[in-house]
Amino acid sequence: MKPEVVTIGLGYIGLPTSALIAKHETNVLGVDTNQHVVDTINQGKIHIVEPDLDKIVLKAVSKGFFKASTKPSSAEVFLIVVPTPFKGNHEPDISFVEAATKGIIPLLKQGDLFIIESTSPVGTTEKMQKLIFASRPELKGHIYIAYCPERVLPGNVMYELVYNDRVIGGVDEASTQKAIAFYTKYIKGELHATNARTAEMCKLVENSSRDVQIAFANELSLICDKADINVWELINLANKHPRVNILQPSCGVGGHCIAVDPYFIVSDYPMESKIIGTARQVNNYKSFWCAEKIQNEKLQFELKYGRKPKTALMGLSFKPDIDDLRESPAKYIAQKVLQNSNNDEHFIVEPNIDFHSVYKLTDFKLAIEKADIIVFLVAHKEFKEININSRKVVLDFCGIIN
Ligand code: SAJ
Description:
Blueprint: E1 5-8, H1 14-23, E2 28-31, H2 35-42, H3 53-62, E3 66-69, E4 77-80, H4 95-104, E5 113-116, H5 124-135, E6 144-147, H6 157-163, E7 166-170, H7 173-184, E8 191-195, H8 196-227, H9 231-238, H10 261-268, H11 274-305, E9 311-314, H12 329-339, E10 346-349, H13 364-370, E11 373-376, E12 393-396
Parallel strand pairs: 1-2, 1-4, 2-3, 4-5, 5-6, 7-8, 9-10, 9-11, 11-12
Antiparallel strand pairs: 6-7
Helix pairs in contact: 1-3, 8-10, 8-11, 10-11, 11-12
């Protein structure tokens, strides 16, 4: 198969994106450094959990429009969809984007389109442009380079990939238009033209905006705890105002996007990004505060009843009704509580996972029945239907019983 499109990175975004393009009968070569991922996809199977993706991949692979490999090859369009984690000091680590770009440089030819989709600090696309022209100066003015971030919500990716609006920013006008012409073939949402730097900042700002708004809700939950006010009732009442829309408090903010992307702004613009930086601190502090609160509740129980309590920790994933534990505040809290445990019994509950290599998981009904202290960390739908004996101590950090 001679690929028209090469995608570098076959993870949560790269695989669905490749599958969508291949579904339109465009030849796609997906590249990943992980041999297991490559083998799984070439068998028509997938290695991540995402509704509908398995069927689309199977069809595209069987029809010959989608193939995976550990090595890229020549194509007309290159998509970089690799992770951009952060380093120890919350500085963005663009080494995967750089490595992917370097792997493609020898394959580039006149007329090719090079697109970065990975969440990236402002200026990354221009940096990659410099990198490309440093070793291939003859390509200057003859290839197209653009940045186009994705905006999909895990669990609804195959729908949102097609119907969400996209922001597309080239390093010049011709690149923007070339990238728009490419995405138009696969995307029904509106495609908004801008430059590369604005598109990069736009992605970071979208997730920072949500982080700041959640921090406001989490800050309210701390204030209300001291003021002896039910924060859930308070927010519900405040939201009756026609122009107020406060989000929900939680045990912290997790996942690979909202808890990460704001640092890309703070790291580059520390003096200017006061609110964004503080929001990160507030949301991180909320998890620490929850762990302390559990510890205190356990001590109080022991003082009152003269025995150690049994504690149920309800939920491990980073948000409700998913099996994804990446950057999960609930997992962090469970870890902290277990570390401080004085041989007292704990039940760890995560209804979306059957087995975990570190945590021994307990069925949620059994945990509720046996525990003295029940801590709701994640608002999974199963938990909302539980009747709890009024003698039990309940700590509700995610609005289950309110
Ligand atoms: N959370 C709260 N309170 C709320 C809402 C969420 O505490 O009221 C917490 C969740 O429990 C979770 C975290 O925030 O720990 C993030 O969850 P989320 O559902 O807001 O976001 P993600 O990480 O699943 O997906 C986000 C989305 N971004 C925005 O909504 C701005 C998605 O559109 C992006 O594509 C994705 O990040 C990404 O890849 O950047």
